[in-house]
Task: inverse folding
C-alpha cells in the first residue's frame, strides 16, 4: 500500500473548519484513501473514505486532488470533542489490512 | 456504522498468568478480524490477522505461541496473552472487516492490559 505523510500536529479554534492534509504521492489507481480518528484511550473510529471523487457524510468531507496525490479531510465546524489523532490510510480495494502511520494530533481550542 | 465490542475493557493481572480478550462483531459477520497493539504515544501496530475457521496470520516479530488467536465463529475472535509479563502491558485493539458493507474495518473500544 502507498505511504502517507501527515503533519504531526495541528490546532484549530472551536467552531472553525479544521482542514487536515495528507500526502499520498505514490497512490495506485485501485487504492482508496481512508480516514480514521482515535480519541484518547479509545479504538479508532471510521470517518470517511474515497477513491477520486469528493465525498461528504455527517462527520466530514474528503477532498481528493485531481491527480490523487493528496487529500484533505474537512471537519466543517470543529468542536472540542473532535480533539483526536487523525489517520490517513491508503488501501487497495479488497485488501483488508490497514497500516497506521503516526497521524495528525488535532487539538481544538475553546 | 458497524459495531465491534471488546471484553474486558481493562484487566490487571500478575506476571506469569494468561489473559483472554474477546472481540465481537455485533451487527455483521466478519470472516476476518485483526488484532493491534498500541503503546503509549505510539501508533497502532498490527499483530495478526484472525481468519474464521483457520489459523491466524501473524506479523513479523509477533510470537504466535505467546499471543494465541482463535476465531471460532463469524462474530467472535479471542486473543490470549500467555504467560504475560510487564512488557506485555499495552492497549490491545481488535477490528473486524465488513466486506459485505463498505469494504471498511470497524474497531473495538480497546482493552487496557496491565501486567504487574
Result:
Amino acid at each position: 500500500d502507498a505511504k502517507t505523510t501527515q503533519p504531526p500536529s495541528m490546532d484549530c479554534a472551536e467552531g472553525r473548519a479544521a482542514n487536515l492534509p495528507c500526502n499520498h504521492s505514490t497512490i495506485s489507481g485501485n487504492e482508496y484513501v481512508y480516514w480514521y480518528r482515535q480519541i484518547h484511550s479509545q479504538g479508532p473510529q471510521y470517518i470517511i473514505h474515497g477513491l477520486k471523487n469528493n465525498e461528504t457524510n455527517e462527520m466530514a468531507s474528503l477532498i481528493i486532488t485531481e491527480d490523487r496525490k493528496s487529500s484533505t479531510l474537512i471537519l466543517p465546524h470543529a468542536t472540542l470533542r473532535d480533539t483526536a489523532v487523525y489517520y490517513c490510510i491508503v488501501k487497495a480495494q479488497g485488501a483488508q489490512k490497514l497500516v497506521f502511520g503516526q497521524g495528525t494530533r488535532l487539538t481544538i481550542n475553546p | 456504522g458497524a459495531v465491534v465490542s471488546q471484553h474486558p475493557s481493562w484487566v490487571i493481572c500478575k506476571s506469569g498468568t494468561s489473559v483472554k480478550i474477546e472481540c465481537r462483531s455485533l451487527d455483521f459477520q466478519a470472516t476476518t478480524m485483526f488484532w493491534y497493539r498500541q503503546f503509549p504515544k505510539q501508533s497502532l501496530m498490527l499483530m495478526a490477522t484472525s481468519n474464521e475457521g483457520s489459523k491466524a496470520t501473524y506479523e513479523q516479530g509477533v510470537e504466535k505461541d505467546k499471543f494465541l488467536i482463535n476465531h471460532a465463529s463469524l462474530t467472535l475472535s479471542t486473543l490470549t496473552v500467555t504467560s504475560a509479563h510487564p512488557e506485555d502491558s499495552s492497549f490491545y485493539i481488535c477490528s473486524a472487516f465488513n466486506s459485505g458493507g463498505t469494504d471498511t474495518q470497524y474497531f473495538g473500544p480497546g482493552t487496557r492490559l496491565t501486567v504487574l
About this structure: Chain B touches chain A at residues 1, 4, 6, 32, 34, 36, 43-46, 49, 91, 93, 95, 97, 99, 102-110, 112 (CB under 8 Å). The mean pLDDT of chain B is 92.
